[in-house]
């Protein structure tokens, strides 16, 4: 976790062994002394808030806010690529099936053309014999 930016939004203290921070549901980071014992209002914006202490392991809903954005972006790119690769495989299988079907239709058309030529020849021969 890159934490060069983490500080109490009220007194600007940085986290240390003596300074424990909490994340308020309004989005402000505050140290314990700045909360003044309050557990339901933010000392920065005075909104009614719930607090989550910043201790390891961070709860899943807030852990992403403390991850390196570049790593998260790379992970998102991997997810995108994985889904896109699967989308392409599916599309390719549709394409192959459609192409097979077209080839079958072309072959059928060729067979019908030959059949027509034969029938036309039979008709010509039949009318020449009369
Ligand atoms: Zn503070
Ligand atoms: Zn606040």
Short characterization:
The chain has 130 residues and is mainly alpha-helical. It has helices spanning 32-35, 60-63, 69-128; strands spanning 21-24, 29-31, 51-53.
CA-based gyration radius: 36 Å
Structural class: mainly alpha
Bound molecules: zinc ion
| Number of separate structural domains | 2
Which fold name fills CATH's third level, the topology of the largest domain? Herpes Virus-1
Order of helices and strands: EEHEHH
Briefly, what CATH class of the largest domain? Answer: Alpha Beta
Coiled coil: 95-129
Keywords: Coiled coil, Meiosis, Metal-binding, Zinc, Zinc-finger
InterPro entries: Zip3/RNF212-like, Znf_RING
Pfam family, one: zf-RING_5
Describe the structure in your own words.
The protein is mainly alpha-helical and 130 residues long. The protein has 2 domains: 1-67, Herpes Virus-1, CATH 3.30.40; 68-130. The chain is 52% helix and 8% strand. The protein has a 3-stranded antiparallel β-sheet. A hairpin with a 4-residue loop joins strand 1 and strand 2. The chain binds zinc ion (2 copies).
